[in-house]
Amino acid sequence: MATKRKSRRAFGRIRKLPSGRFQARYPGPDGVLRAADQTFATTTDADRWLARKRIEMEEGRWLDPAEGRTTVRDWSARWLIAVSPQLKHKTQASYRSLINSLIVPALGDRELSSLRPITIVEWVGAMKTRGLSASRIRQAYRVLSQIMRAAVDNEMIGQTPCRGVKLPRMPQTDPHILTPPEASRMVRNAAAPHDLLIALLAYAGLRVGEAFALRRADIDVAGGFVLVDENLAEANGKLVFDTPKTHQKRLLRVGPSLAKRLGRHLETLPAGEDILLFTTPAGKPLRYNQWRKAYFDPAVSAAGLTDVTPHDLRASHGTWVADRYGVMTAAHRLGHSNASVTTRHYARPVAGRDDQVAEAADFWLSGSGTDDGSAGAASD
């Protein structure tokens, strides 16, 4: 009597272990035989698992389990090296600090494939418990999200664990918008040549790092132009010259009086196109904290103002320009590639404008059209 032969399995192998459970193994696309990350109670369960793996490979969804076993520490280090050439020096330093101080200590020994959304929720919660600021927590989460997204893109894990995580809200802090006369008082009360630097923040909308990086070659006195093509930033205690934020170089027109003042200041500087406009008494590049304490804050106090930062002058400039000449013009002067950034962070309602609109609306309603702004408003 012929014996019934056991049918050969079409994909993978199953063997019974001494424990009585079954182990499934399968060949990956590279031909290497890999064992399942679990054992099974029956051969039927093992067969089903093998069938799913075969479908994953046929549909191009298969991931090498070894890649998922890479630790967060190793992958974050590799990721940072890969993206660093695309980042500004200050951003590189910030990412490295966040990885070394907040990500690796908590998650560094974890395998990428072991992370789940609840893991990230617990990590965020632990940072809140430690009393970290909302800004710091959100920065750390944003970096981890990029690291995990890169792992997905490189087919190390199927999906990022950074999803559905509720982050602490940032406190709403509106900039202190000065009036043009208030800013002018600051300029008049600042020590030279830092009065000129403050004027560039308020009346040209420069970032403070952009003003610190201005050189003789950037000033066209006759044409009344300032070229903004560099930014001076501090990263890990070191000063670094780089392109402006978002790499947006721009040519700005300044008023005739400001251009003349720039011209007079250039005459006091040493020769050389690369010479910085503003330096320390020793001729070194300026550092933000030292400059603010020595020159900016005293000008604020002398002008009878309080709670004013250098960034407030830039925000004030954006508000003045947006109010009179539109958000797109303000976006250009501030160096924003997207006007929505200008609207969200800089352009603020000017005091008294709502009353003016209400008064103009009365003219529009009556149809008299005798107010100064009626024609322009009707055509918008």
Briefly, what is this?
49% of the residues lie in helices and 9% in strands. It is mostly helical.
Overall pLDDT: 85
Adjacency order of strands in the biggest sheet: 1-2-3
User: What is the overall number of helices?
Assistant: 16
For this structure, what is the CATH homologous superfamily of the largest domain?
Answer: Intergrase catalytic core
What does it look like?
This protein is mainly α and 380 residues long. The chain has three domains: 20-62; 68-153, Tyrosine recombinase, N-terminal domain (DNA polymerase, domain 1); 180-345, hpI Integrase, Chain A (Orthogonal Bundle). 49% of the residues lie in helices and 9% in strands. The protein contains 16 helices and eight strands. The strands form three sheets. The protein has a three-stranded antiparallel β-sheet, with helices on one face. The protein is elongated.
Question: Which terms summarize this structure?
Answer:
mainly alpha, disordered N terminus, 380 residues, elongated, 3-stranded antiparallel sheet
